[in-house]
Design goal:
The protein has 381 residues and is α/β, with parallel strands linked by helices. It has 14 helices and eleven strands. The strands form three sheets. A six-stranded parallel β-sheet has the order 3-2-1-4-5-6, with helices on both faces. Strands 7-8-9 form a three-stranded antiparallel β-sheet, covered by helices on one side. α1 links the parallel β1 and β2. α6 packs across α7. The longest helix is centred in the middle third of the chain and has 26 residues. The radius of gyration is 25 Å and the shape is elongated.
Length: 381
């Protein structure tokens, strides 16, 4: 059976998105929409967004195009509203009321385009006591309880990069909200505002844990539970060369295979005996220290022991499974994660490198029929 493929570059081909330039979760959300085939026009500000990286390497701006508009100029808001009138979605990541002060808040945008999905990405949300306060990923995830679950007991919780808050609790929830609102707009003809707050999304990620907590199956402290490193057969262990292996042998059959391959098969009865977990952890740790990471990788290769090597960012693209699937791709000399997820009928790809500020103004003005983007039309000679 052959699956028919829809022409274009992904399932969102034909969807137009205006992204008001920022840093962090907003651009990543817009990148995901672009990866899925949407025509994303990034409205850059003069002088750039302030991220200390050469735009040529900012791969969160891949598959997008860019215009430069000064929203603080007299005609800046009108130029953005001209784009909005022809768009399906707008994404912005300002603090509450900033877009309104700039003249591109939901009210003027919906006056020009009632079907518009207006996506708002913030840390604290559009309301609440902290809504207008500054913050970054780690400060957003801290009060949700998520940060407090991570790390060893008696030690400070580590900073989990900015993946948990900015991108998992922020960008992905914004995209889910935008797509749901886009469906509603196409059914009803009415757009709406999507308020995506990192605190809301990060708290939502812990839904299962809250259920376990209520049922008495989760202790409200670090390193004492099945999935937080408290369990000796779910965690990481150092190897002889100072690297690490990850173990997730939760089910009985996987646990048995893990112990057998590790060489401590006589400890099978310690699986459910919490009083023996410390003893089991010490023995597992000692065994892992007898070989290098690559040697242990070979031991567990192809097994159902649920054990994998902990790789660095530069090592990851060369993992045999990831390489076979094309999980990473090279584009314009930059190794980067390929678009995800995958689609049978509407495949996606990295089509273009990072958008350069203002480089696509003429093409966008023509294709979106927004001649006001061109300087000559605003300043005729």
């Amino acid at each position: 059976m052959t699956t028919a493929r829809t022409p274009g570059h992904g399932p969102l081909t034909g969807v137009r998105v205006v992204e008001l330039a920022g840093i962090g979760p907003g651009p990543f959300a817009a990148m995901l929409l672009a990866d899925l085939g949407a025509d994303v026009v990034r409205v850059d500000r003069p002088g750039g967004p302030g991220l200390a990286i050469d735009p040529a390497y900012d791969v969160t701006n891949r598959n997008k195009r860019s215009v430069v508009v000064d929203l603080k100029s007299a005609d800046g808001p009108e130029r953005v509203l001209d784009l909005v009138a022809r768009a399906d979605v707008l994404v912005e990541g300002y603090r509450p009321d900033v877009a309104e002060r700039l003249g591109v808040g939901p009210e003027p945008c919906h006056a020009r385009n009632p079907r518009l999905v207006y996506g708002r990405m913030t840390g604290w949300g559009q309301d609440g006591p902290l809504a207008r306060s500054a913050g970054h990923d780690i400060a957003y995830i801290a009060p949700t309880g998520a940060l407090g679950m991570i790390g060893r007991p008696g030690q400070a919780p580590p900073a989990p990069a900015n993946l948990l808050g900015d991108y998992a609790g922020g960008s992905l929830y914004l995209v889910v909200g935008v797509l749901a609102a886009l469906h509603h707009a196409r059914v009803s003809g009415t757009g709406q505002v999507v308020d995506a707050a990192i605190v809301d999304g990060t708290a939502h990620l812990a839904t299962m844990i809250h259920g376990m907590l209520a049922a008495g199956g989760w202790q409200d402290r670090r390193g004492a539970n099945l999935l937080d490193g408290g369990c000796p057969y779910y965690g990481t262990y150092e190897t002889a060369d100072g690297r690490y292996m990850a173990v997730g042998a939760l089910e009985p059959q996987f646990y048995a295979e893990f112990l057998s391959l590790l060489g401590v098969g006589d400890r099978a009865d310690a699986r459910k005996d919490v009083t023996r977990w410390d003893e089991l952890r010490e023995e597992i740790a000692a065994r892992f220290k007898t070989r290098t990471r690559d040697e242990w990788t070979a031991v567990f290769d192809g097994s159902d022991a649920c054990v994998a090597p902990v790789l660095s960012l530069r090592e990851a693209p060369h993992h045999p499974h990831l390489a076979a699937r094309g999980t990473f791709t090279d584009h314009a000399g930059i190794t980067q994660p390929a678009p995800a997820p995958r689609f049978s009928a509407t495949p996606t790809s990295v089509r273009t490198g990072p958008a350069r500020p203002g480089a696509d103004t003429a093409d966008i003005a023509r294709e979106w029929d927004v001649p006001g983007l061109l300087p000559a039309s605003r300043n005729p000679q």
